[in-house]
Amino acid sequence: MAKRLLIVLALFLLAMMFWEVAANYTERTALTPIATHYVAQGPDEVGAPNLVTAVVVTYRGLDTLGEVTVLFLSAVAVGLLLTMGGLDQKAEPPTPASEIVETAVQYLFPIVLLFGAYIFVNGHLSPGGGFQGGAVIASATLLLFLALPRSKLRHALLIITESLSGFGYVLVGVLGLVLAGGFLDNRVLPLGDYGRLFSAGAIPVIYTFIGLKVGAELSAVLERFKGEAS
Amino acid sequence: MIELPLSTITLGTGFGLLLIGLWGMLVRKNIIRMVIGFSLIDTGIHMIMVSLGYIRGGTAPIIDAAVDRATALTAVVDPVPSALVLTAIVIGLGITAVMLAYAVQIHTHKKTLSIDDCTDSKW
Amino acid sequence: MVEALGNPLNLIIVALGVGFLLPLIERSSPALSRGLFNLTIIYQAVLPLLWLLWLVNGAAAQQIQTAGIAPPFSINLRLGLEEAFFVAGVNLASLLGAWYLGGLLRGRAAAMSVFLILSMGVDGMIMTRDLFNLFIFIEITAIATYGLLSLERNAATLTAGFKYIIATSLASTFFLLGVMLFYYLTGTLNIDGMREQIAQVQGPLGMVAMSLLVAGVVIELKPYPANGWGLDVYESAPTGIAAMVSVGVSAGALFALYKILPLIEPFLPALVVVAGTTFLASNIIGLKQNKVRRLLGYSSIAQVSLLALAMVLLTQLHREDAMPLVIGGLFLNHLLAKAGLFWLSGALQRNAVEDWRGLRANPLLLAILGLLLAALAGLPPFPGFWAKWELVMQLSAGGMVSWVALILVGSLLEAVYLFRWFGRAMSPGVQLTPAPAVAQLLPIVLAVLGLLAAGHYAADSLGLDTLWVLLPAYAGIALVSIDGLPTRPKGLITLAIVAYYAYRVVPVLEGLTGLFGLMLLGGGLLMTAAGLYRGDTRRGYYALLTMLLLSFGGLLQADTSLEFFLAWEFLTVSSYLLLCMGRDAAPYTLAYLIFSLAAAFLLLAGFGLAYAETQSIALADLANVKDGAAAVLGLLLLGFLTKAGALGVHVWLPGAYAEADDDFSAMLAAVLGKAAVFGLFLSVISLGLKGGGSDVVMYLLSWIGLLTAFFGALMAIFQEDLKKMLAYSSMGQVGYMVAALATGSHLGWVAAGYLAVNHLLFKGLLFLVAAGIILRVGQREMYKMGGLIHNMPVSFFGMLIAIIALSGVPPLTGFGGKWLMLNALLEKGWYWQTGLAFFASAVAFLYLFRMIHTVFLGQRKRIHKDLRDAPLALLIPQLLLVFVILALSVQPNWLVNPIAAIMASHLPQTLVMHGSLMQSGLGYWDGFLVINVVGAVFMVPLLMLLVLSRFMRVQRVKQFNIVFAAERPESPETTHYAYDFYSFYDRALGFLVLPRATAFWNGVAEWSHSMGTGLRIFYTGNGQTYALYILLYVVTLYFAVGGPS
Predict the structure, then answer these.
(1) Alpha helices by DSSP H, C808-917
(2) What range does the domain containing A55 cover?
(3) Nearest residue of B to residue A123, measured between CA atoms
């Protein structure tokens, strides 16, 4: 009971802190100098209409590489934890889905994959990008597992995709170092015509790598959680 | 009545979610529920992040037909928090996945999901 | 190409590129992936080392930008001297760690990737200059750790891992929130940009922002009590991983703190409290811990908080210039020593401290353990020693005396639990596990070598004549390498080395140091020579003995307090280890070390205070201390008195002197004790005559000295054990010297010097005689001896001379000493003290009589019929000492004149000498008064005993009473007349010698342990509770520093 009281007290005090923030917060009416630079110079410097993408892939590209790394690490960690006899093998066999679902998924699956790819290649133009696209691809896998619990992914393909796209991303970054201004500079390729698919330098390439990598990794994570149960 | 700015509302909601998540994490004994608490905390943080980058009346920072370059400076929200939140979401996802994997393993080894039974080492 | 390979950004690029590829490569060729991993991890370690080298040699700090766009619009990193140092350290540890982990990683490309990325993550934490990017690297490091923790699959590791995730993810959540608020307030994420905009970080939002940012980083540093999750991981993780968490991840967090310090100015005082509390609490709780890995966990947390404490305090003092030595030294020390110990505990697969018994059977492992522990405890020549020295000096100079005290107390506690562990390893026991593989030991050995090299470098950076001041350590190490030789040749080599050293050093010493040079080095040589009687294997004995003797030289030649303290610590370490070699010494070694270290820390505190006032570490400048003279004098005297075994802090002494090897006991009591006397001399000469508070200190000193003399003698008379009796006797004799020094007069100091020389002669002689007796009889209990005069006439003669010299009756040297001392006391007008001195001398007669009577006279035991006298190797030094005593008795002026001349350079000479007779020396003294006091004081105990014996039932028992009564006594020793020889005095005076000091110190120990029990009550093991602590920590920080407006 004392502990419960302490929890209430701690949360109350934390709420007081938050209240201080919320009560003294004023909505901003102008961009910060840095955001101003991004908005004013971004289209010329990076060539991507989607400024969030410009920030994500180029201006703060190192963050994004780190983000990819985090995802890679968690996929590996889940792998390390759940392989080698981790999961309870005596789980009940999953109930198969109805035929309608099974059939629908077979049609939906490629379309969802395609949609994912669309999202990541257009990341510099419209809302979306590598992570979003990758997540959509993984959702296709999830759909597959829900409908066909016995389905298996091709591990070799997953690992190759994961490794090569990760390595490719780093390589493009290094090319920036060699050919352009610095590590992860997207201007290794010409910026092209503003607003076109093939523009914004290496951003679509990077987002493709990220999309593939995220899709493969999240799929692998999903499969590991699904376990060997079949 | 005072009209609350939009971002204050989302900010407050974010803080509320954070506190609810913390409550779940601190009170619920089931590890899975604790992980859910963490997810709520995470979501709360993301809302706070986005709120802090909001510019009054701003729209998405995508400079295309809808927002031309000339007016963009006054028309869009700060792209930085949006970019950061994307990163934060992915990281949160990664941590949640690892937490769940740990939960699975703990259940395999201890046949329980209660955090109170996870006191193998202390002092 | 070369330039491309040297790009600091490669630390991130290569680790990631290889990390991503490894799982793929392993599918086709496991060997290739292994090779690539090795290559990468070596590259990761070499690159920052090269940069460190370039930067030290003047290269400019590297500003690394990304994306081809200048900061603050893009993320930038920095590789300056401090970054390069930390990165190099961490990557070196991960290289050695990977080597150590070999087996665990083999065939697991995924784990290898994670390991690579873990150290990359820490590198990023150190190098990045962007706050959000810092968050990313924190998360990379965290998740990589989560992954590696799962390499060991048992319930404890898994639950600990889960708690770790909960805690660190909460911490980073708060950190992220803080970062976002900072962005909101300053409009930038660049740390340097924020520093420029720091004025914006104010008001209620600024307060919350700062507290969240601080909390996020501080929790990563595992502050007490919100750190149970960290300890659980240290305890249950695979040792290689725990080592990485302890040194790598903590290093990253520490550097993160360093980076944000300018952003959170108002929180600096709170940080100091947090770090100080954690340091002290962890070390107190560590006392209770009996599992090695958790012990290392407590030590890790303590060391990291010490680093944080030092960092913040130096920032507050604006002494950033001291940071390289202090932070660098402490960090490197923690890095290599802690990692090495984690690896060692893993390689030997021993977790419970008890299980380390019997490690002494393997000298290599024992040496590794000892060196690593010594490094961790901040002993020389390791970097932690220099760092702690500099830290104490800087803090003292900044007036932060209470923090100095906290750091020293905490360090002492840490040394206690670390060396208790070593004590176990030195205790006899069975060798349980087979020796570990060489491949696993190599990284640990490299860590030790790295520590030695770093220590050498640190000494260089202080501008010392490094080779010379570290000579004792290096000579010791060199002699270890010939440890395989038979014992006697090693002894001869030691003698040759030390003799040559003394030949070079002693002649250049002048005055007081010259006198003590002769005593310490001459006496040391003689005792070493006497030790040649032993031909059994004595592993490491002569190496350590060389170290000890050369440290005497260092002590005498020291011009600065640093050199003095260094030599002093060498003495402490080497004598402790030599003591450890005593067969039954194990129960007493820890007390010896604790009191020795406490003494050293008192000295350090004293030197610090002196430095604060004079801004100089020259010993000569001690005399320039004015305002703090009494405090400095008090601290120095306390330190030296502890080492000399003054009453109250003498509890370590009897055990140590009695249980050391017999020849080493002679060294300890006769020679090493004089080092403390030298220190006492040094203190009173520099500071004793300042008037004011110093006078009070000196007056107290006189009582301490005489009470020590009295109680030492009193306790000696009740000892059954020959060596223990001599030990207490030594304690009492030192008391006289202390009292004589306290007079602060020329006469008194001459007396002190004279007593010191004399004590060296007769106590050395007595211990050597005792060594011979014990060798022949195989016993230390005196009542089991008797009548040995027939078998050991030379030894008897030696003891007789020594006893007469000790007792202070004419005609031998002792008389002169007593005469000088009593005169000095009287001259000062200290009549009560004079009385006590007389009384103590009278008591001394009792034990002297008992010793010679019980051992050499009376009936000889039948089994001792065929004993021979001691071996020649022992007798020759004895005879030499006898000869010197006799010579000085005939010509006391040979001794008094030089001493008087030495003291005359410090004080106006009051002792005047005419010709060779010293009686004619003193001009004015009230001889009548002296005689009266002497008479009175001899009468008092006499009357007292007469009165007491009247009222007590006195029973006269013949020796064989009980046997003649045809009774079989229950415990046969009680029938021996010599058993409990002075039982009647025991009844009269025994109440005075109840072990009060021992009881007191035991009480202190118990109290500390119960403190530990009380403080660790927070560690319930429940992850949810730990999360609550973290939350409470955050809000407490906020409300303690500012709170809502």
Answers:
(1) 813-827, 831-856, 872-890, 893-904
(2) 45-76+100-224
(3) B62
